[in-house]
C-alpha cells in the first residue's frame, strides 16, 4: 500500500491535520468520564444543583467542540479519500490505455473493470479510515486504560486482565476471517466476468435458449460468494457476544471491587462510574481497531491488484524518437521471417506459433486478399502491422522502416484498421466517423460513407450524419455497423487499409459494390482484405493463403489455382468448378 501513497501527495494537509482534529476529539472523549465522576462526587452527592448544571455545561461544551473537531476531520477525510480515488482511477485508466492487446488479454477486461472500480473503492475507504481512525482508535483504547490507572491503580488490574482478553478474542476471530476476505475479492471478479459475458452476450444467449444455463452459472458464482460471506459473517458474529461478555464481566468486577474500595475509602462512587465508562470506551475502541484490521487487509489485497496493473509495462513500448521518414522505393509492407506466439515464448512451453516464418512484401497501392481456414492466423498477421502485438521473431516494416520505430500516432495514422468486431461508440454517426479524422469536413465524411456503401442508409435516417449512435452501436444492424466502421477508417484517409473480415455481415451484392468502390476511389491506398470468402478476395491483385499459421501461397487467383493445393481446396469448397476457373 505504501507504493500508492504517492497518489496522496496533493492531500498532505488533510492527511496530517485530519488525524490531529480527530485526536483532539478523542482527548475530549477521555475527559468526559472524569467530568461525570466530578459531577457525581461533588454535585450529586452534596445536592449542589448549581454545580451539576455548571459541569453539565462543561460536558456539553466538550461534546460540541469534540463534534466540531470530528466534522472537520470527516471533511478532510472525504476530500483526501475521494481525491485519492479520483487520481488513482485516472492514472489506472491512463496506464491501461498504454497496454497492448497482450496485457489486456492477460488481465481480462472484467478483472480490469473490477480493479478500477471495486478495488479503488476499497482503497479509498481505507484512506478515509486512515485519517479518521488509525490514530484515534488505538489512542482511545490505550488512553482509557491509562486514565483508569491514573484514577486507581489497584482497580486498573481489571483493565489489565480484560483488555488483553478482548484483544485475544479479536485476534482469534480476525485471523480466521481475514483470509476469506481475499477469497471473496477473487469470487467477485468471477461474478463480474459472468455478468459481463451474460449481459453483453444477451442476444446470443437468447438465440441459443441458454438463459437457464447462464442463470445457473451466475447463481453458482453468486452462491459461492454468499457461502464465503456467510462463513465470514458467522465468524464475525462471534465477536460481539464474546467481547461484550468479557466486558460485562469486567464491569461486574469493577462494580464489585470498586464498591469495596469505596467502602474502604480508597475511591469515590464517581470514580467507579468513570471506570465503567472507560471500560466501554476501551472495548469500543478495540472493536474499531479490529475492523480497521479487516479494512486494511482488504485494502492490502486491493493495493496488490492495483499495483499489479500499474507495474505492468506494455509489451509494445512506444519509441522515444519523433516522426520517422519513409525510405524511398521500399515496399509498402514487408514481413521478414515473422513468427508470433501469444504467450511470447514461441512454443518453448508447448504453445505453438499463431503465425510462423511469414516472409513477403506488398507494394504500394496493391490490394491483397488474405484467406485461410478459421484459426489459421489471418487476424494475427494483420494485427502485427499497426503493432497491436509485437512480433516474437523477425520484423515488420512499413515503407522500409521497422514498425517498432514509428511513433504510435504516425503508424496508426498510416494504417486504418477495421476490426472483425464492429464497435461503435455512443454519440452520433459524425462523431464516430471523426474518430478517423477529427478535422474531416462534411464532404469528406459523406465520401467515406459512399465508398463504404453506407451513404444510402445514413441519408434515409431523419437526422442523417447527426443520427444518434447508442452504446456499442446497438441501434444499427450488424451489416450497417460494419459499413460505418469501414467509413470511419476511410475518413482517416489511411495509406494502408486493413479490413479484417469486416464485410462478413454484408450481402454478396453490397460486398461486391464495396470492393468496386474501394478499387475505384482509393487509388494509391494499399488494401489488405481478410476474408474466409473466396468471392471477396478473388479479384484482389494478389492473394495470401494461410494454413495453420504458415504461408501456403501468394499470388493471383489463377496462379494459386494452379499451384496452391490449400487455395484450390478452399475455392472448390465454396465455388463451382466453373466459377473457380473464371
Ligand atoms: N488473444 C489471443 N490469445 C491467445 N491465442 C490467440 C488469441 N487470438 C488468437 N489466438 C490463437 O491464434 C491462432 C490464430 O488466430 P487468428 O485469430 O489469427 O485466426 P484467424 O485466421 O483470424 O481466424 P478466424 O478466421 O476464425 O477469425 C488461433 O489458434 C487462436 O486460437
TrEMBL record:
Annotated PROSITE patterns = ABC_TM1F, ABC_TRANSPORTER_1, ABC_TRANSPORTER_2
Domain ABC transporter span(s) in chain numbering: 333-573
Query: What subcellular locations does the record give?
Result: Cell membrane
Q: Describe its membrane topology.
A: Multi-pass membrane protein
Q: What keywords would UniProt list here?
A: ATP-binding, Membrane, Nucleotide-binding, Transmembrane, Transmembrane helix
Keyword Membrane among record annotations: yes
Gene3D superfamilies assigned: ABC transporter type 1, transmembrane domain, P-loop containing nucleotide triphosphate hydrolases
Q: Which residues form the ABC transmembrane type-1 domain?
A: 16-298
The entry lists its GO molecular-function terms as: ATP binding
Task: Output the Pfam families linked to this UniProt entry.
Answer: ABC_membrane, ABC_tran
List membrane-spanning regions: 20-40, 52-73, 133-151, 157-174, 238-258, 278-297
What's the protein name? ABC transporter ATP-binding protein/permease
- Provenance organism: Anaeromassilibacillus senegalensis
Q: What is the lineage of its organism?
A: Bacteria, Bacillati, Bacillota, Clostridia, Eubacteriales
